[in-house]
Amino acid sequence: MDLGPLRPYTWAVLLGLFVPLSWILEVMFGPAAIVFAAAGIAIVPLAWFLGLATEELGKHAGPGVGGLLNATFGNATELIIAIFALSSGLTEVVKASLTGSIIGNVLLVLGVSMLAGGLRHKSQTFSREASGIQVTMFVVAVIALVMPALYALSTGASQDVALQEMSLGIAGILLVAYGLGLLFSLRTHRDIFNPVTEVVEEPRWTKRFALGVLVVSTTLVAVESELLVGSLASARTALGLKDLFIGVIIVAIVGNAAEHGSAVLMAWRNKMDLSVAIATTSTTQVALFVAPVLVFASLLTGRLMTLNFEIFELAALALSAAVFAAVVSDGRSNWYEGALLILVYAVMAVAFFFHP
């Protein structure tokens, strides 16, 4: 089989066989847990190709527009999954997946990257200034997400009109913060983010081919997301898992798996600046862009998704921010720091598994 421009990604093409497999299982009324697993696996290569197509189009468009494309489509897979979940009324699963994406990026992805890179290189370095700015953006997002929960706890009102209006207002502010962050990183201070915005590479795909891959990947991600969400309820019952655990751990990992692989690969190649950038940029995108977009998108479903997160989720976010800030503060990493981040993530995963 001649894969042409896709030959270097044979593994992803082979995993793509789970796309028709998931359709066959759905049509044949296969067990919900199997359909859920097949759809989840199918999303991984599709997300990988979606990211590659975005990157290739960015190379054709130039660094400025390319950076904007990557910032916009960086979490497209997760956004699509979340929109289907919202339309199915799974608001709490969506919130949990947002929490899971954030803690997954700063603990699991960064941890595995530092561990992989550290096993090959004794010590690795990355930009303290760039990572410090990402830490600040992360903390701002955590503050914004904490305030609605504090309001709900102090007033005892978890679904009143004021909380809904507050969530819309904060979502708007988060989008402004995200827009200012793009202006800062892609325009006024792009030299700080040199590994992300200034690397000039020749495109490997033609513009037409990249656009075709982008359209096909996005369409198939939407189809697989519908299968994933449609089988979620039955799979949850069959597996005996809670909504919180499914959202924080399983859905979050599926939505970000392709991006996770890129960060680890960059660390293995001793490009720790890029590895840290992938993990931290994805984190701030989820907190400052995906979360508020979903709040506004939920208006179309007739049931507004507020930013009133579970106190357990908020504690996990705050603790993740603290650990993240401590690890990147010196601009250096090693395998032991990576192992510790993974262990912190494991502790949280166990806690979410037992949370009712």
Plain-language structure description:
This protein has 356 residues and is mostly helical. It has one domain (4-354). It contains 14 helices and two strands. It has helices spanning 10-15, 18-27, 32-61, 63-73, 76-87, 91-120, 128-155, 161-188, 194-197, 207-239, 243-268, 272-297, 311-328, 335-354, and strands at 124-125, 332-333. A two-stranded antiparallel ribbon has the order 1-2. Helix 6 runs parallel beside helix 11 and helix 6 packs antiparallel against helix 12. The protein is globular, with a radius of gyration of 20 Å. It starts with 9 loop residues before the first helix and ends with a helix.
Parts with pLDDT < 50 across at least 5 consecutive residues:
195-199
How far apart, in Å, are the first and last alpha carbons?
49 Å
Shape: globular
Mean pLDDT: 83
Q: Can you lay out the helices and strands and say which pair or pack?
A:
Blueprint: H1 10-15, H2 18-27, H3 32-61, H4 63-73, H5 76-87, H6 91-120, E1 124-125, H7 128-155, H8 161-188, H9 194-197, H10 207-239, H11 243-268, H12 272-297, H13 311-328, E2 332-333, H14 335-354
Antiparallel strand pairs: 1-2
